[in-house]
């Protein structure tokens, strides 16, 4: 069938369980046609009903759309994704924007991205600032494989990947440390969708109160910041004040916040004066 017919059929099949069947159908048919969603109108591909059905079954089982597509756009770059790695979220782009602002006036800045996953934060910063040296630390092998693939895919030669547990001994000396840690409180598990629960739980849950990584990282990684260095976290909804308190309790000063595009406090940061 033509891509147009396939889009209509896919949207109908997705309707019972998708919030955005039309938009998803466009992505899926473009994926099957091997073109960009905005080029679908010009595609002559012959889409098979059984291929659509196979994708719809996966979606009904809760496989994230992005895993089916195999890649997703974040900030200005494409990231390869699949089972074992967190899909980059638009909410996280505010951390990249904040990071670029923080290092604006520093030549050859050194940046560490803790809990790097797909590498979306590290690679976006590195691509925007080719004079920066960015280190990206990730503990889990499956996610680390995606980090390596994405460094290669984006030709981000100024990113150094490290297979490392960020709860172990810190290392290096950085102008900026950024981190989007696992931050969902364990008790919120019941409220998560099937799609989110298909992503690695090691990327999602941050202990009983969601704050475990913020506490450990603020305490331990402070020593890896240069004088006037900044530690900047992405935070979950309603976690900003608690994370600000954690930073203060660990001696950080000039605490600040940045909102995401819908006005939620998403980034909390602080400075050290390690002289
Ligand atoms: C919320 S995800 C963020 C991924 C990516 N930075 C992003 O923004 O999309 C958290 C990441 O931390 C990794 N992680 C969890 N515990 C870790 C640890 N102890 N040390 C290093 N990485 C860890 C997870 O595997 C996951 O990739």
Looking at the structure, the CATH topology of the largest domain is: Rossmann fold
Head-to-tail CA distance between termini: 67 Å
| Oligomeric grouping of the chains | single chain
Radius of gyration, CA atoms, in whole angstroms:
20 Å
Give the arrangement of secondary structure elements.
Blueprint: H1 3-14, H2 21-33, H3 49-60, H4 65-69, E1 71-74, E2 77-80, H5 93-102, E3 110-114, H6 120-128, E4 133-138, H7 141-153, E5 159-163, E6 174-179, H8 194-197, H9 212-220, E7 225-234, H10 240-249, E8 253-259, E9 265-271
Parallel strand pairs: 3-4, 3-6, 4-5, 6-7
Antiparallel strand pairs: 1-2, 7-9, 8-9
Description:
There is one protein chain. The chain has two domains: 3-61; 85-271, Vaccinia Virus protein VP39 (Rossmann fold). 35% of the residues lie in helices and 20% in strands. The protein has helices at residues 3-14, 21-33, 49-60, 65-69, 93-102, 120-128, 141-153, 194-197, 212-220, 240-249, and strands at 71-74, 77-80, 110-114, 133-138, 159-163, 174-179, 225-234, 253-259, 265-271. The strands form two sheets. It has a seven-stranded mixed beta sheet, with helices on both faces. Helix 7 links the parallel strand 4 and strand 5 (159-163). The mean pLDDT is 96. The structure holds S-adenosylmethionine. The site of S-adenosylmethionine (SAM) has 23 residues, from helix 6 and strand 4.
């Amino acid at each position: 069938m033509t891509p147009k017919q396939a889009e209509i059929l896919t949207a109908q099949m997705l309707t019972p369980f998708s919030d955005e069947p039309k938009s998803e159908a466009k992505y899926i048919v473009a994926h099957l046609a091997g073109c960009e969603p905005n080029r679908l109108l010009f595609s002559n591909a012959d889409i098979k009903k059984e291929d659509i059905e196979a994708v719809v079954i996966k979606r009904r089982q809760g496989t994230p759309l992005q895993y089916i597509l195999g890649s997703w756009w974040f900030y200005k770059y494409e990231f390869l994704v699949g089972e074992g790695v967190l899909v980059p979220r638009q909410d996280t782009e505010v951390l990249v924007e904040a990071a670029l602002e923080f290092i604006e006036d520093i030549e050859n800045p050194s940046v560490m991205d803790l809990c790097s996953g797909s590498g979306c934060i590290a690679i976006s910063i590195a691509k925007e600032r080719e004079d920066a040296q960015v280190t990206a630390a990730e503990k889990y092998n499956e996610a680390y494989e995606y980090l390596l693939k994405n460094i290669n895919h984006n030709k981000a030669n100024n990113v150094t990947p490290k297979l490392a547990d960020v709860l172990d001994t810190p290392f290096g000396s950085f102008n900026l440390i950024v981190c989007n840690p696992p931050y969902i409180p364990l008790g919120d598990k019941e409220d998560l969708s099937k799609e989110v629960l298909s992503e690695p739980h090691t990327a999602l849950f941050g202990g009983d109160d969601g704050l475990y990584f913020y506490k450990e990282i603020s305490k331990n990684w402070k020593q890896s910041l240069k004088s006037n260095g900044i530690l900047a976290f992405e935070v979950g909804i309603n976690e900003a004040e608690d994370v600000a308190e954690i930073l203060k309790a660990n001696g950080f000063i000039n605490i600040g916040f940045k909102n995401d595009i819908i006005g939620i406090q998403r980034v909390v940061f602080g400075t050290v004066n390690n002289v």
